[in-house]
């Protein structure tokens, strides 16, 4: 059963800053980093290594977030995870931007109809975030992406669908921040441009096994009333289940659900 790989954090090291706000940005990067981690949480060493902070700075910021309730500390493991205040903010955001609740029936229908794993992804800066995942009844489950995990825009079927169908100028802004050196398994910029072109030509995004060679993923965008891409629906399965005529069947199912969801959002 393929399982999730550790998320990458290229965009968390972005040099884009607002004047005088570097400390605030660092704190927000820590929150995003912790939110993308597994249930085990992250350690001080993890934060220092992956976010490029010095130990004193990382400890000071973690302590402040802990004090305010945005993080919680597992004293035995000495790891941090999201706290009650982060949960409360999440509930408030969900009530205002509740695409997960609106899309959940569609994500479930895709999993039930295909028998495979379906996902709902949204954009966060230069990354895609998985906000929902449902599994079908096929014995081999594709669990490469957990709810809350992040990937650079363009990496993975849903993430590629978010990027490929944006306006050209926005695509270029994202690609300008793409850091292929952030992880050894990321596609090159040339590969990513080719994936974007193929997605636009086909009308759907295909991940041809870039994350796990024996796994394929296919995704489509979801639009709002202004015809902006606001989310992506995707399905992932072992290669033999997303080949030939069945690939087109899954694409059709995704496009039907996307059209219905887009109409509902409008």
From TrEMBL:
Key words of the record: DNA-binding, Transcription, Transcription regulation
Residue ranges annotated for the HTH iclR-type domain, each copy included: 21-84
GO MF term set: DNA binding; DNA-binding transcription factor activity
Family matches, as PROSITE patterns: HTH_ICLR, ICLR_ED
Presence of keyword Glycosyltransferase: no
UniProt record, GO biological process: negative regulation of DNA-templated transcription
Source taxonomy: Bacteria, Pseudomonadati, Pseudomonadota, Betaproteobacteria, Burkholderiales
PANTHER family in UniProt: HELIX-TURN-HELIX TRANSCRIPTIONAL REGULATOR, ICLR FAMILY (PTHR30136), TRANSCRIPTIONAL REGULATORY PROTEIN (PTHR30136:SF39)
Protein name: IclR family transcriptional regulator
Pfam families assigned to the protein according to its UniProt record, in alphabetical order: HTH_IclR, IclR_C
SUPFAM superfamilies in the record: GAF domain-like, Winged helix' DNA-binding domain
Species this chain originates from: Bordetella genomosp. 13
IclR-ED domain sequence ranges: 85-266
């Amino acid at each position: 059963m393929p399982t999730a790989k550790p998320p990458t954090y290229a965009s968390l090291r972005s040099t884009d800053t607002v004047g005088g706000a570097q400390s605030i940005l660092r704190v927000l990067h820590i929150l995003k980093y912790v939110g993308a981690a597994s249930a085990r949480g992250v350690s001080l060493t993890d934060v220092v290594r992956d976010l490029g902070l010095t130990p004193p700075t990382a400890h000071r910021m973690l302590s402040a977030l802990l004090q305010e309730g945005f993080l919680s500390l597992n004293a035995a493991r000495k790891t941090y995870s999201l706290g009650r205040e982060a949960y409360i903010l999440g509930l408030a955001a969900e009530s205002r931007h509740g695409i997960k609740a609106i899309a959940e029936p569609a994500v479930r229908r895709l999993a039930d109809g295909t028998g495979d794993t379906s996902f709902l992804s949204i954009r966060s800066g230069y990354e895609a975030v998985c906000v929902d995942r449902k599994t079908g009844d096929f014995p081999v489950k594709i669990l490469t992406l957990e709810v809350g995990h992040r990937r650079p825009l363009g990496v993975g079927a849903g993430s590629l669908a978010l990027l490929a169908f944006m306006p050209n100028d926005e695509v270029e802004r994202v690609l300008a921040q793409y850091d292929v050196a952030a992880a050894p398994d990321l596609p090159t910029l040339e590969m990513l441009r080719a994936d974007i072109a193929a997605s636009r030509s086909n009308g759907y995004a295909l991940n041809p096994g870039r994350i796990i060679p024996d796994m394929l993923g296919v995704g489509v965008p979801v639009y709002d009333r202004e015809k902006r891409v606001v989310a992506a629906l995707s399905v992932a399965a072992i290669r033999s289940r997303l080949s030939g005529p069945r690939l087109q069947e899954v694409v059709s199912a995704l496009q039907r659900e996307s059209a219905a969801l887009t109409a509902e959002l409008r």
